[in-house]
Design brief:
Blueprint: H1 3-8, H2 16-41, H3 43-67, H4 72-90, E1 95-96, E2 99-100, H5 102-124
Antiparallel strand pairs: 1-2
Helix pairs in contact: 2-3, 3-4, 4-5
């Protein structure tokens, strides 16, 4: 696998097997590093670290979206909603009296609905058969 391509480029297509492998590695490494950051620098630093970690996750998911013939802007909406949720947590506008705010619930539910859609769409459905507007079929 070309790790630089997987985590740093936004062009082309990616089928399910390398997507799952690269995602598993990204999640595992991110969890370990985030745990270290939380224990050494605190929760706010961990949230900022998460924002940095989005770059390789975004690159990976954009390629998978392209394989499913989905536009890049759809992935951008997903990640923007996640950034908004994180920033709401950093600035403390996610809760009032230990209850989530309405704004946080709206953003969170919207993000969760997209997350579920992408989990099924990217994780279990085959990409577009043959070439599409994003490139040749990676299985072709």
């Amino acid at each position: 696998m070309d790790w630089n391509y997987l985590y740093n480029r936004f062009d082309g297509r990616l089928n399910r097997k390398p997507y799952w492998i690269a995602n598993a590695i990204l999640i595992l490494a991110g969890t370990v590093l985030q745990t270290i950051v939380i224990r050494t620098l605190g929760f706010a630093a961990a949230l900022i670290f998460t924002l940095i970690w989005f770059y390789p996750a975004f690159a990976l998911n954009v390629k998978r979206a392209h394989d499913r013939n989905r536009p890049t802007w759809l992935m951008a909406i997903f990640f923007v909603l996640l950034v908004i949720m994180i920033l709401m947590q950093v600035f403390g506008v996610d809760q009032v009296d230990d209850e989530p705010t309405t704004a946080f619930l709206i953003v969170g539910i919207s993000w969760f609905a997209l997350a579920f859609f992408f989990f099924v769409d990217f994780g279990f459905l085959r990409g577009t058969v043959g070439p599409n507007r994003f490139g040749p079929d990676p299985l072709g």
